[in-house]
Amino acid sequence: MESLAKAGPLNLSNLIKQHYHHTKLSCIISNPFVSWAVDAALENGIPCAMLWIQPCSLYAIYYRFYKLNQFPTTLISNMIIELPGLPLLHTEDLPSFLLPSNSFGGVFKLLSDMFETIKKYKWVLANSFFELEKEAIESMTELCPIRPVGPLVPPLLLDQHQSLDVSIEMKKPDETSLDWLNKQRPHSVIYVSFGSLAVLSAKTMEAIATALKNAKHPFLWVVKTAGQLPLGFEEETKTQGRIIPWSLQTKVLAHPSIACFITHCGWNSMLEALVAGVPMIAYPQWSDQPTNAKLVVDVFKVGLKLKPGPNGVISNEDIEECITQMLSGPEFEGFKKNAAVLKQAACEAVTSGGSSERNIRLFVNEIARRS
């Protein structure tokens, strides 16, 4: 990121001058982690919008941390933080980059730089929707407004025509898993995926494997390499589940056989599950994921959170208990109902007259008036 920050501004400025000499750009939309892009845009007389790619709740947390100093000087374990528009947060619920244990100093600086330049952006857009994060969004209205224009997910999840799908897969997915899902009963399959970056310990992998085997439910588990699995597990469970290296996740989540999703709570995966109406078992790792998991449990009320023991490792018993609670416990119907309500709200947000559609129209109209 450091080399990109050095070379990026000049290269972007040159790109604008070389390719858009006669046709003026009306707006540049940039990722929040390339804060130098806004300076390159303004130098060329082009307004810039940021597309925030985490929950609006995280935007509110970071803004108050970096701009308003509404946090204790030192964050310690079990501390409670109260912020407008958000549930009560414990230290463990905060994004990992704000904690003393954070080992990614470069990311802390990236976030600091971004919020130093935040007022230079003409608009801050977000991959979320108003009905999902109403309180957090409204808490920022007088500070630095954020306009949700999402959910930015493939059309399949929004009950839209597939011809609108322009998504690109990071890796080659296993398409045969969909045939396998077609053979499973409705709301019976446990889907497990921890994204492209998370690396789980051998003990954690063993705990998940044991829990899935003992749960007696069919499962679909995304595992990058089979060598990460306990010896003999795949053979022992070949009639119960499928192990695949990568999935067509939106199609999997939209499949009627899926009962719940064990996830790391990366925002893209979490938003896809919310729009698909799938309850979640949260096992966050780092970055925004601990806060996202808090939202799943206490704000959206569509799931449970796995909590590591004193040794930092989850037990198979705890996973099994979460699976039981998720699929047949007293909160089971509530999770399903809340997930269905959010799915409906997501679809309505992007239809004509919906909250996100209105924000997009407002954004485009403002650009048009400036052109």
Question: How would you sum up this structure, described in words?
Answer:
- The chain is an alpha/beta fold and 371 residues long.
- It has two domains: 2-150 and 351-370, Glycogen Phosphorylase B (Rossmann fold, 3-Layer(aba) Sandwich); 167-347, Rossmann fold (3-Layer(aba) Sandwich).
- The chain contains 14 helices and twelve strands.
- Strands 9-8-7-10-11-12 form a six-stranded parallel β-sheet, with helices on both faces. It has a four-stranded parallel β-sheet with strand order 1-2-5-6.
- Strand 1 (28-30), helix 2 (36-43) and strand 2 form a beta-alpha-beta unit.
- The model has no long low-confidence stretch (mean pLDDT 93).
What distinguishing features does this structure have?
single chain; 371 residues; alpha/beta; Rossmann fold; 2 domains; six-stranded parallel sheet; four-stranded parallel sheet; globular; UDP_glycos_trans_CS; UDP_glucos_trans
